[in-house]
Amino acid sequence: MRLTRGALLVATGALAPALLFTTPAFATATAPTTTAPTAAATAAAVPSDGTPVDEMSLDDLRFAIVRILADPDSGRRVTREANAALDGTVEDMREFLKTGYRLAQAEDDRVAIVRIIGDPDSGRGVKREANEALDINTPEALRAFLETGYRLAQAEDDRVAIARMLADPTISAALRAAAEEVIDGTPEELRYFLEVGRYEVDR
């Protein structure tokens, strides 16, 4: 029996922990220039049995798209294009999974990067890397920045902020010791120190 769109949504919600795909992290900040579908698009398009998009049944096509809609990280353009594909023909659904998803994701990523650049809290390193991703302007470069480049650029800016803190002769001994300990730490440790840790050392 053919599943309805509502039934697919209910099924996806019930099985979300096991079924929802996660977008893979890119290994480098330098993105490839290939126009092949990204790994994220392939993961969304291919069901667990590895069936290619062109060989998927109608229900498999619908389910793959519903998985994308159920992903909380799907942006406005992806959501709009996914819903349009579900309301369209089988060919529309295949086209979305093969190319439309990748392009819609790139548009959402572009919007997200522009917002990061416009954030007054974004530092020099973040803005530099964000602008470089926009200049390259491939779906892969945009995704690479959001998944890895942003985190590394933020860490660079955080280290600069901590170094400036250490250059201040008026900081307390406790704060200096904590800053010296964390300055060579992970991006997460640097961020935590600036957001929380530095306010706890003199308590």
Main attributes of the structure:
single chain, 203 residues, mainly alpha, elongated, disordered N terminus, signal
Structure commentary:
This protein is an all-alpha fold. It has a domain at 5-121. The chain is built from 10 helices and no strands. Helix 5 runs antiparallel to helix 6. The chain starts with a helix and ends in an 8-residue tail after the last helix. Residues 1-42 have low confidence and may be disordered.
Write the layout of secondary structure elements.
Blueprint: H1 5-14, H2 16-19, H3 39-45, H4 58-70, H5 76-86, H6 90-118, H7 124-136, H8 139-166, H9 173-182, H10 187-195
Helix pairs in contact: 1-4, 3-6, 4-5, 4-6, 5-6, 6-7, 6-8, 7-8, 8-10
Biggest sheet features: none
Q: Count of DSSP E strands?
A: 0
Report, as a whole number of angstroms, the end-to-end distance: 65 Å
Helix content: 55-70%
Short characterization:
This protein has helices spanning 5-14, 16-19, 39-45, 58-70, 76-86, 90-118, 124-136, 139-166, 173-182, 187-195.
